[in-house]
Amino acid sequence: MKKYLEILLASPLFRGITAEELEQLIPCLGGGVRRYGTGAAILLAGTPAGQMGLVLSGRVQVVREEFSGHRSLLAELEPGELFAETFACAPALPGGLPVTVLAAEDCAVLLLDLKRVVGTCSNSCPFHTRLVRNLLGVLAGKNLALNRRMVHLSRRSTREKLLSYLSEQAARAGGTEFSIPFDRQGLADYLCVERSAMSAVLSRLRAEGVLETHRNHFRLLRLPEEEV
């Protein structure tokens, strides 16, 4: 656990909690470090919602798989970020977890017992209340991120969705150059569009002098305001 202490202390979940307090808190939460290889399932849709996790190394993806086999990427997470925390504050879910959490690459995660996170601490830890307050803050932030995504998805065309997302990323970066946390397939899944159609739109935008791009790095040269 000491190997990941810096990441744990930097996580919003443990904001305001010291290293000494963390050493007492992790066992109290039933915490354990697990390692997964690329493509391995960390949490499976349909299983009971009993755990939440924090990424310690590598990358993790949260996906929703339809009966048809279509997969939608809901989030791609890096060290310090949480997954499945929403279910800590939700009632029992009929049918179990609605999403699957996968290792996008070799990773290590800290898994915590949901009931211990939101329940009354048997050890009367004074910092457990702080943990719950931090969790509520994380949930509020995730809700805002979901609202931002819905703004992009509400656009009618692939071009409008893409420009809406890229303009938001530029605003968040505070400049016209920025990197996004997705590869091409991940971005297509995030925007719920076909990768081939999105690639064609990107090619047209480059030809029109709207943007330059290399892998996941973008530079906006101009942005048609009427399209975003």
| Rounded average pLDDT | 88
Number of helices: 7
CATH superfamily of the largest domain: Jelly Rolls
Content of β-strand: 15-25%
Which strand order spans the largest sheet, edge to edge or round the barrel?
1-8-3-6
Q: Which of globular, elongated, flat, extended, rod-shaped describes the shape?
A: elongated
* Total discrete domains: 2
Q: How many individual β-strands?
A: 11
Secondary structural class: alpha+beta
CATH topology name of the largest domain, in short, is Jelly Rolls
Structural account:
This protein has 228 residues and is of the alpha+beta class. It has two domains: 2-142, Jelly Rolls; 155-227, Winged helix-like DNA-binding domain superfamily/Winged helix DNA-binding domain (Arc Repressor Mutant, subunit A, Orthogonal Bundle), CATH 1.10.10. Helices cover 37% and strands 23% of the residues. The protein is built from seven helices and eleven strands. The strands form three sheets. A four-stranded antiparallel beta sheet has the order 1-8-3-6. Strands 2-7-4-5 form a four-stranded antiparallel beta sheet. It is elongated, with a radius of gyration of 19 Å. The model has no long low-confidence stretch (mean pLDDT 88).
